[in-house]
């Protein structure tokens, strides 16, 4: 007997999970709150920029936000800007019919508010260089985004991890910005991301029940090789270092507030009935958690030395 084709496996898992998608979509719609992006923008602080309106050029001293917060908000916004590619990715993976299609379009509609509100906030408060921001946006969106996840289960695992990581990135940037309006907006966006994470997390829990070994392997592959979708942003590595050094998002946060909560909620490390492939994947996850801890501790020591050197230089 020949094995089913990969496309048959994909169709099977999507079909088996469709009742879960419908149930979780109903739950999501009942919990989701309607909010208006324009109401989170301090319009009274805005003024014209240079250009056709002959306004005032942007200058760094006009921003009251710490540099690392500006980096974080810029990375968060440019990540949100690639929504057309994300929509294409999940629509292609999950389909546009039935409950799957309804979810894909609803998710896209909700995500679209994030970039609109963030960009307008940054412009109104002159928080970042608008010329740099637009040039980065053009490069980012022109390049697009491809996840390269090999299976539907990998794609589900990725969006589960990514939505929680994005929630933390927005929430922490808001907490660090020192601006009540910025914190309010970041918290509002983070609340959306949290609901999206809950949808995907609970959907993946059902996938673990249907295909425990394949889903555990997919999750281990994603967690052990995880990268945020904004890594192609110009200057990402330097910005990420500054963001990490400021305590906004770093490996320790990723381990403690993203990976560990997901593994606990999905009961991955305590689940019974796994075959050899699932057990091997779970062992790989355990080793990765140890590696994350060690790397986070090394980076924390580096950040502390950098901070001490900065303070020592400032006292001279």
TrEMBL record:
Any Pfam family the entry gives: FA_desaturase_2
GO process annotations (BP): fatty acid biosynthetic process
Domain of life: Bacteria
GO terms, molecular function: metal ion binding; stearoyl-[ACP] desaturase activity
Sorted UniProt keywords: Fatty acid biosynthesis, Fatty acid metabolism, Iron, Lipid biosynthesis, Lipid metabolism, Metal-binding, Oxidoreductase
The protein's required cofactors: Fe(2+); Fe cation
GO cellular component, one term: cytosol
Positions with a binding annotation for Fe cation 1: 80, 111, 114, 193
Residues binding Fe cation 2, per UniProt: 111, 163, 193, 196
Cofactor info, note text: Binds 2 iron ions per subunit.
Quaternary structure (record): Homodimer.
Entry protein name: Acyl-ACP desaturase
Organism this protein belongs to: Streptomyces hainanensis
